[in-house]
Amino acid sequence: MKVHEYQARKMFADRGVPVPPGEIATTNVEAYDIAARYNKSVMVKAQVLVGGRGKAGGVKFAENAESARILATKILGMDIKGEIVRKVLVTEAVEILSESYVGIILDRAAQKPVIMVSSAGGVDIEEVAAKTPEKIHKMHVDPVIGLRPYQARDLAYCLFKDISQVRKAADILMKLYQTFWEVDASLVEINPLVTVTGGDVLAIDAKVNIDDNGLFRHPDIAAMRDLDAENPAEVKARNADLSFVKLDGSIGCIVNGAGLAMATMDLVKRYGGEPANFLDIGGSSNPQKVVTAIQIILEDPSVRSVLINIFGGITRCDDVATGIVEAFKQFRPAVPVVVRLTGTNEKEAKKILSSIKLPSADTLDNVVKMAISLAGQPA
Amino acid sequence: MSIFIDKKTTLIVQGITGRDGSFHAEQMKKYGTNVVGGVTPGKGGSRIAGIPVFNTMKEAVAATKANTSVIYVPPAFAGDAIYEAVSAGIKLVVCVTEGVPANDMMKAVPYVRQHGARLIGPNCPGLISPGQSKVGILPGSIVQPGSIGVVSRSGTLTYEAIWALTLAGLGQSTCVGIGGDQVIGTNFIDCLAAFQADPATKGIVMIGEIGGSDEEEAAAFIKKHVTKPVVSFIAGQAAPPGKRMGHAGAIVSGGSGTAEGKIKALNAVGIPVAGSPTELPDLMKEAFKKMKAGKFAKTKKAMMKTPTKTAKKSAVKKTGKKK
Fold it and tell me: What ipTM is given for this predicted complex?
């Protein structure tokens, strides 16, 4: 799960990472008031979860409160890659002398957190990694021991020469690592970490991604989920405990298991169709989940046929069949629905389904081909 | 023979009184697995499907001398269940639980290794050595004893592949689901090495998916260390970047972890990748044929001392195209 900059910034600041003063505004008047109170030049920053907001014009410098009001008027309501800006962060502007990058991610292959620092900050770090990898310094941390102060200093020396700045940066790295661990993050990032006149080191941006599996330990963070920034169907699916991702195609897919759901999408593409979604109904077989799944797919106007592919293991085919029949009672689909149910309690499932007479196939490849050939035809 | 589990496997079910734990304890017992006990704190002294329940792993292992455990406890307690099993002396821990935080696993995985034990999972269907033992949730009805080793990051997709193999008359030595999470105890390379060393395994099916670089590392390992034929399927070719496809580990990020990249890495070391999981049996049979022919060609080559380069090249091209 992604959180907004202002939320990530608070996670850092709560643990002692120095950040410039800043507050959140949802209207241009609020932005004006904040800037007027600071009585300084400010930055007005769009709060969106997508990347590239700077290039899209979502981050602007304002000389005074009036200019902050005008800029906030422009930025609030802006559409950045499909996400509408509903909040802006107004922070005191600082005079930047240098920009660095510091970040921590989970390195899957090493099964450890890896800290990355670079003196080439303020730009897209993936670009730096691709073009000038020698400018990025990496260090793995033993998760059992944690980050040691000497390691943080080693990294800080890659960024600064001045010992007082090295100490400040090392302290920030320690606190960043603490944040990474305490909030169950999969990524924490400050880009840029800046030096200002007088020698201070400040975080003027903040990014945190949370490991979804760790959310149960952090109800406060789970509550930060920005439902406005998400596809409504994805929200509905998550509430029903379904794993769903909206795609651009026309073949609706309902599958049990993430791997099989991906493979089913792949086959839709292979046989000339385009999948409308990824949907995994999960391991257990609750008929109600199947009803919700079918409803979500049918509510998508681009869907022209639906395929249901179940390989019964723990999931019982008869439970899925019961869900399908129930869904057909509640909302008569306007597009063809084809099924393939195989595995646990397959025979019982076929008996249950005989009441609604759906086109069915016995293999994975055939159900996909059938869904594609029936697409666009009346149900 | 088989890998990791066999007739000598003696199993304890952690979380045996839960909904999933009790159901699968019975399923495993029915399949023929030697389920010697279960653990649920506070339920010691009771029985589930005739299996004695203990309060702690220490107690259970002392009473039963079990060597393997399987975990069905909720994600918040799964990490602890792993430590408990290993410190009680269990050598193989299979964690079925989905949704375990990566931070918990980053600490648990090195602990398991330091104690000379093996962890499979989390977020995995477990494993089965057909006709001998099953640990986890794989349906016993779809397997058949034989000589194909199957290793996969997925659950139901693995069933699909196993079922296709069984229908084609290709039985299995062991099928292992290693799990779809970012931090897992046993990876492709561990399984490939075990299959390579197992005399009962003649060919290997490897089922990967988007995210991470396990498949690329496996390809490099196969080139160096695996002489048995390997065929593969990679799920997620139609997946958009930046979106997590169900599994915690199934995400294409920053252009890495794509299906294309993985397929390319596998093809580069001569591993054919199927367009559909149902085509895996044919690829396997072809790989066996090719291997026989290769061996024949090698002996012939040695006898004639004149390598037929063009013939070899066209043969590679042909099989390369067949995917």
Answer: 0.91
